[in-house]
Amino acid sequence: MFKDLDPLLHAQLRLAVMSLLMSLESAEFTFLKEKTNSTAGNLSVQLDKLAEAGYISLEKTFRGKKPLTTCRITPKGVAAFEQYVNDLKQYLNHNPL
């Protein structure tokens, strides 16, 4: 009947991050923090979860002496996001008998 929604993407902050990354080549940590209105600690934890799943890649460098984390969505992340959206559409378009 219905497919289970991907629990990794179903969390609000992770879904927001993935939604932003779908339309960007890459995004810096500070940009994602600002756009999602999240705390640095919570965002960091959620980015690590997405990276562990292979949905995003994290590049940690320095800009001057300040750490810089850049996030990119991976092909696996794009596929997972598109599947999540399709599964959600099935829920929304379901007409009970």
TrEMBL record:
SUPFAM superfamilies attached to this UniProt entry: Winged helix' DNA-binding domain
InterPro entries: WH-like_DNA-bd_sf (IPR036388), WH_DNA-bd_dom (IPR027395), WH_DNA-bd_sf (IPR036390)
Signal sequence region: none
Domain of life according to the entry: Bacteria
Protein name as annotated: Transcriptional regulator
Domain Winged helix DNA-binding: 13-92
Pfam families: HTH_34
